[in-house]
Amino acid sequence: MKNFILFSIPALIWGSTWLAIKYQLGIVDPLVSVFYRFLIAAIILFAYCGSLGINLKYSAKQHFFMALQGLLLFGINYWLVYLAEVHLKSGLVAVLFSTIIFLNIFNGALFLKSKVRLNVLFNSLLGFIGIALVFKEELFGFTFSSGESLALILAGISVITASFGNITSAYNQKNKLPVIQTNAFGMLYGSLLMLLLALATGKSFTFDFSLPYIGSLMYLAIFGSVIAFTSYLTLLGKIGADKSAYVTLVFPIIALVLSTIFEDYNWNALALLGVILITIGNFMTLRKKRVNANA
Asked: Do 257 and 91 meet the contact criterion of CB atoms below 8 Å apart?
């Protein structure tokens, strides 16, 4: 039950962040927006640790791996996602990001010597086919214009970066680094990298005082970063990077439900079939785990 809750929280939250990110694009440069987001998230986590007297003293080696997680997962990854969404529909980016489940399986086996679980691989493939069917229009509507082609490459690099971030988190947890403290330092280091890149590239540190920008920024910092990542990375440490990445096959469906409500998305037979395939893959993954536990 606890794993189900840890799975549901990031799935529900990240399903809505694709829409929230759209409100971040416009006046403020994406690089600066990512800096704002993770700096706020880091401040919240450090305040939480300080209020409970949680230990924040770590060795230089531990800080290195926390920084590596932050740079990969809370810095470069999201900067590239924001840039990609300038030219690509959020649905297409969601489909591309779902491929992280296969990268996690491969990278986990390569770097963590994790066993490749064939049932997870099959269920992931089933779910990914479902995602492709759901977002068929976005996939076939893609054109190789200069802007969209570059955005596609950036989105692909962001997936690779995020997968390495997932594996780094799994490594950190195996070495007894707690999730909350690691996220606090990781988000701080990730935001500082964005700050340095913004300064180096001459970005303007503007701010949009409109309600949509501030509201989406706080939602992304508190729910999309602090709460969702704490739940997801805790789940990752419990069940592995391969199974936890199944979240990325579920949150696009949440995004689709929101699109139905706010953007008049029209369902069709292929989209319904896609949702069924994702549901079956998810059920089979969880059912296999329960059978093993009973055995």
From this structure: no
pTM for the model stands at 0.84
Q: Which residue has the higher pLDDT, 40 or 258?
A: 40
Residue among 263, 253, 265 nearest 15 (CA): 253
| Domain enclosing residue 279, as ranges | 2-294
Query: Would you say residue 58 has pLDDT above 80?
Result: yes
* Maximum Cα–Cα distance across the chain: 59
Q: What angle do CA 238, 77, 223 make, to 5 degrees?
A: 60
Packed helices 118-134 and 247-262: angle between N→C axes, nearest 10 degrees:
20
Cα separation values, 219 from 23, 105, 289, Å: 11, 30, 33
- Per the document, the length of the chain is 295
Question: 28 pLDDT exceeds 90?
Answer: yes
Integer Cα distance of 115 and 171 in angstroms? 15
How many domains is the chain built from?
Answer: 1
* Residues 6 or more apart whose Cβ sits within 8 Å of residue 13: 223, 224, 227, 228
Per-residue pLDDT tens digits for 266-283: 777 887 888 788 778 766
Q: Is the pLDDT of residue 245 over 90?
A: no
In a 10 Å sphere around its CB, with 0-12 CB exposed, 13-18 middle and 19+ buried, how is residue 265 labelled? Answer: middle
